[in-house]
Each structure stands twice: as structure tokens, then as C-alpha cells.
């Protein structure tokens, strides 16, 4: 059975320029698109959401990259969990069965790199038709004590570990844009060399590299032969189009 991994950016479901502000209407709209696809299809689905204004400003404040901060780790995790609960409630209200999976409790890092990720519970959930909902989180790190693990890094890891066939990251832009703000249809390892100068971080606070971080993570996945898409989840119907396998946004591919 085919497995889809969908990331919804914090730029879509939160107001990234505010502090801990969710966009409830956007969460509900996307939940409805996901739930109606799930009713219609027997594909398995994993959802990952970004932290947006529930994680990036907090991670910046407690400077996890500069040193361990136990209180900061607690406060960041607690904040992203609030957003995760809102997503879970919305999905279940829309008629999808969804359960949370917190990376803090299932994952271990070494200098920011994933060295252990428990997927046993995720496998049972997807077999039972439940959507596991992961999120960008603070995660224990054997070297740094604690680090931020982005949703963008979770997707390639799970895609490989669970052999996903369709991978997508929805953000607040129509795809990766060129110097004239036109959507780049495809990015490969080769074309990235020329395009890189136009791909930047985020317009808001983003501790995980914004669009450049996202493209870099997905290019690494493409190098392993797994393609993915970056598209606009803020536009009505695009999440649904992606789920049904349509050609949306920018394709990140190895050739
Ligand atoms: N070449 C580019 N094409 C498209 N967006 C770009 C580009 N360069 C920089 N960006 C910025 O990247 C932003 C998207 O990345 P950002 O990390 O803010 O969103 P996200 O990953 O959806 O959110 P989160 O990290 O909270 O999950 C866009 O809103 C845009 O400002
Ligand atoms: Mg981001």
C-alpha cells in the first residue's frame, strides 16, 4: 500500500510574525481536505507540521544552539504541543482519525543529526488507518543536550525509514520561486547550483533555514532517489491536489 508524507508549514497554520498565534480557519480547511481524501482513498498518510510562531521565536529566545537550557527545552516543547493539539482536534473533528507522535519522546539526535527514531508506533497507526501527526520539536541531543528538529528534516527521515511513495511540503508560497518570483517547476542537484542564490531563509523568524533549509533537506532525499514537492498549502484545494497526485508547485528530483 502506498504511503504519503505531507508536511504543513508553520507559515500556513500560524501567524509567523506573531507569537503563538494559530490560524484556526486554515487548520480546519486543511483538516477537511485531508479528511475527505482519507475517506476516498486507501493510501496511508503521515502528517508533519511545522512549529511556526509556536516554536521558532521560542527556540530563538532560549538559544538552544548556543548551549543547553533545560527550562527552555520544556517551554519550547510545551508550546509546539499546544499547536499540535489544535491540529489533532481539528483533524478528528473533520472525521479523520489522527494521533500525536512527539519527536521529543521518540527520537534522539547527535549534533542535530537523527541517530534514532522509533517508528514502531507509527507503523501500527498507519496500518490501522490512523494519521500520525508529528511536528517540529525540541529533541534530546547526545552532544548538545537538546536541539531543534525541524519538520523539514523529519520528512526525509521517515520517507526513507518507511518507504514512502509521495512526499510533499506545503508552505505559504506557490513553490520555490526564481529571481522573477516565478515558480521553478523542477530542482535537481545540478540546477540547484545556479538557483541557490535566489533561495533564502524565511521572511519571519525561522531557526531551521526557511526555504533554503527545506530545499536542502529535500535535495538530500532526492539524491537517494526519492522525489518530493514544495507547494502552496495556503491556497484552497492545493493540499488536496497534492494528495491526489497532481503536479503542484516545485518538484525536487534527482534528474
Ligand atoms: N526562492 C524562494 N522561493 C520561495 N520562498 C522563499 C524563497 N526564498 C526565501 N523564501 C521564504 O521562505 C518562506 C517559507 O519558509 P518558512 O520556513 O518560513 O515556512 P515553513 O517551512 O512553511 O514554516 P515552518 O518552518 O514554521 O514550518 C517563504 O514564506 C519565503 O518568505
Ligand atoms: Mg521552515
Automatic annotation (TrEMBL):
Every Aspartate/glutamate/uridylate kinase domain range: 3-232
CDD domains according to UniProt: AAK_FomA-like
Keywords: ATP-binding, Isoprene biosynthesis, Kinase, Nucleotide-binding, Transferase
GO biological process: one example: terpenoid biosynthetic process
SUPFAM superfamilies: Carbamate kinase-like (SSF53633)
Superkingdom of source: Archaea
Site (Transition state stabilizer) location in chain: 16
UniProt KW Kinase keyword: yes
Annotated ATP binding sites: 7-11, 52, 172, 210, 214
Top EC class, one word: transferase
Reaction catalysis annotation: isopentenyl phosphate + ATP = isopentenyl diphosphate + ADP
Chain residues that bind substrate: 51, 56, 151
Listed GO CC annotations: cytosol
Protein EC: 2.7.4.26
InterPro entries in alphabetical order: AceGlu_kinase-like_sf, Asp/Glu/Uridylate_kinase, Fosfomycin_R_FomA-type
Matches recorded under Pfam families: AA_kinase
A GO term for molecular function: ATP binding
Purpose: Catalyzes the formation of isopentenyl diphosphate (IPP), the building block of all isoprenoids.
Subunit details: Homodimer.
Entries under NCBIfam families matching the protein: IPPK_Arch
Family: Belongs to the isopentenyl phosphate kinase family.
Name of the protein: Isopentenyl phosphate kinase
Amino acid at each position: 500500500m502506498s504511503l504519503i508524507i505531507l508536511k504543513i508549514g508553520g507559515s500556513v497554520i500560524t501567524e509567523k510574525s506573531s507569537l503563538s498565534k494559530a490560524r484556526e480557519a486554515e487548520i480546519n480547511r486543511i483538516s477537511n481536505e485531508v479528511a475527505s481524501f482519507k475517506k476516498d482513498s486507501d493510501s496511508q498518510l503521515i502528517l508533519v507540521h511545522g512549529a511556526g510562531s509556536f516554536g521558532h521565536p521560542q527556540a530563538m529566545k532560549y538559544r538552544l544552539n548556543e548551549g543547553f537550557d533545560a527550562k527552555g527545552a520544556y517551554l519550547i516543547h510545551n508550546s509546539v504541543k499546544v499547536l499540535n493539539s489544535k491540529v489533532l482536534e481539528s483533524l478528528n473533528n473533520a472525521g479523520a482519525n489522527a494521533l500525536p507522535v512527539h519527536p521529543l519522546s521518540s527520537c534522539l539526535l547527535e549534533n542535530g543529526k537523527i541517530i534514532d527514531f522509533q517508528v514502531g508506533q507509527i507503523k501500527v497507526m498507519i496500518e490501522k488507518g490512523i494519521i500520525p501527526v508529528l511536528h517540529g520539536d525540541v529533541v534530546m541531543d547526545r552532544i548538545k543536550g537538546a536541539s531543534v528538529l525541524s519538520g523539514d528534516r523529519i520528512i526525509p527521515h521517515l520517507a526513507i525509514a518507511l518507504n514512502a511513495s509521495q512526499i510533499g511540503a506545503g508552505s505559504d508560497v506557490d513553490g520555490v520561486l526564481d529571481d522573477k518570483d516565478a515558480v521553478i517547476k523542477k530542482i535537481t542537484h545540478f540546477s540547484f547550483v545556479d538557483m541557490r542564490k535566489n533561495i533564502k531563509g524565511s521572511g519571519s523568524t525561522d531557526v531551521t533555514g526557511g526555504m533554503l533549509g527545506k530545499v536542502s533537506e529535500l535535495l538530500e532525499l532526492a539524491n537517494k532517489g526519492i522525489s518530493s514537492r514544495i507547494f502552496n498549502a495556503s491556497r484552497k484545494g492545493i493540499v488536496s491536489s497534492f494528495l491526489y497526485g497532481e503536479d503542484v508547485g516545485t518538484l525536487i528530483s534527482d534528474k
